[in-house]
Batch of 4 targets.
Target 1
Amino acid sequence: MKSKAVIVVRGNVGNIEYKQSATGGKGRAILSIATEEVFKKDGQTVKETVWYRAVAFTGPDGTGGLAELIGRMCRNGTGLEVVGKPKMREFVNNENQKVQFLEILIDEVDFLNNYGEPKDASAPQVAPQPVQQAAPVQQAPVAKPTYQQAAPQNQGFAKPQANANPFQR
């Protein structure tokens, strides 16, 4: 049995960065995704935000793919759910220390709120306009159809012969 590590993260986009390969190969969209957890600690409500780094790639020809879709559909605050493979990355920071971090290589993405509309309070709220109802239209009564099974009729086909083999011509 093969084993496979999968991560599912549901949260809001914090930052999107799009990078194209210098050699004309695959491009990628790099996302910061925030999840928020609310819990009680010593009687106080505590909100804890955890950030994840996720990467989506373009198609083999440098166009299309999840990176392009995410680039068109996401903005800061967009709710989404990503499913992908975990990948440990490392780099050396300015203090010459090795830093490791977890990155999610996105396989699937699901947009959670209005396909690209930001989910924040600063977005303009549009008040619903009242809808005028048209006057009811008078229709003539329609007769209810009645269905009856017709008696079988001979449609001019020859009657089958008794003891006839249907496979013989």
Target 2
Amino acid sequence: MIDIVTADLKTKAYKDFKDLLIEEWGQVDQLPEFGHECAIPLPLLAFQEETLTGGLSFIEFESPEASQLALWINAVYISSVFRGKGIASQLIEQAVQVAKIHGESTLYVYTDKKSLYLKLGWKLLSEKDNDCVLKMDLS
């Protein structure tokens, strides 16, 4: 069973998640730090028992549909041994719920995993090469 929790920025698990993201992509923008106020939701971490299996972080960036800032999924990472078990889907579905609670009307993502998001009910906005922008209406 997978448990998804809001990250506690003071824990080793959150530091481990940040390290996994940096190891995978080099740098990830707007990861919150302990002691700093953050207007976006905190990252979500997925655990199987006590083992960190992955996580999801948010970012605030310009909306592709209006000239205003919007909430985006910044990164979804699942440790290689846990991939293919539906954890990313669970994290994305939880992110949608968090965004609703946060008062957002739309959640966006820029990704190369189009089929995953389409399967979860997201709408394709644009596509170029392997990358695309999708949205989930939250109202």
Target 3
Amino acid sequence: MIRPLLMAAFFASSPLFVAPLPSFAQASSSTAEETQKFRAYLDEDWKCAMVDQPEAATWLGFPGQNRRWRNNSPQGVEIRKQHLRDSIEKLKTIRLEKLPEAEKLNYDLYSRFLADTEEGTRYGDDVGGGSLLMPINQREGIQQNAAEILALMPHGTVADYEDILARLEALPAAVDQTLALLQDGLKRGYTPPKITLRDVPKQIADLTPASRSGSRRADRSGQAFICQRGCAGVSETA
């Protein structure tokens, strides 16, 4: 999730987004055109990152991604890498010399950001942040992030609760993808220090019932509770 969060921090602090647009009136038409092209590029790249990183989209309040988890299959990882490569090449089409000084700084910062991200992928980092070879430890990983993201999701309407249920139903596939990443990392000889995994077994145990029958009962009662809460929330706000 780190890349979208860093992008958010960049956009929030950048003069490109906090400054008004009066410069267009005084600037040459070519400068104004290139600045608009640069801003449109950043907007498109942001939206692409939100689709690639649905957990980050939930965290940041970006709509439309609340039913999914990040696709950590080999195909999903490659799609993110391709998006990154495409983003780097597209940035090169913007004429840096035509941008005003503040935008040149933004260009340089974002270019460096993309280059650093690409370099990280050579060492097993995911484009969206985190390690693909060692995806869990006691501070982060699906055993921590899943519950956190579900708690962050909107809980105000029936549609919100339908999103929660859809995400819960998709969770087993996300867990299987994490297991596959762990197994691949192990085959490659990548294992985190033992101390960083100390609390992971208990974290997982705390999220799972003691028996399959308990799991089925919890699933049915949980869905009923969510539906009741959703309907109650709708009627309260109607």
Target 4
Amino acid sequence: MTNTFQTLECDTDILMIGKDTFTVERFKELARKRINARFSKRYVDKDANCSKAIASWLFEQSLEIIENETRITFGNIKLIFPIEGINCKMLKLGSKTWKPGKLRIKVMLEKASIQTMEFEFCYDEPLQLESPLDDIREREDYQQLLNNQ
């Protein structure tokens, strides 16, 4: 495996995850909805005696390197999950065969809301570019023509 993840930009490509199939566009819609729901989920902050969304809590936190001197606040958070990707197959528009690989999601959070979400795919084997002429080149009469030259 090359481990080179590439951003999926064609929303009409098809993903097969387990036994389920989705267009890239539909899978993005479902994932955004679920991720938003997860980060909007509320928990009870007993110290402040209130409930807060998990994403809001993340952005209220800061990392103190040296006590009371050096503090880093979280302005943007980039999430990649799962890092190694999940097994799936992709059927690209115009392709004849499913290509196995891994899918992962990159989310950029800013001020407790999703700013961008990208889907990345890494092929298990390097892609060999398909040509519309491949079918012609494989035909017997074409092969004979080549051999007669």
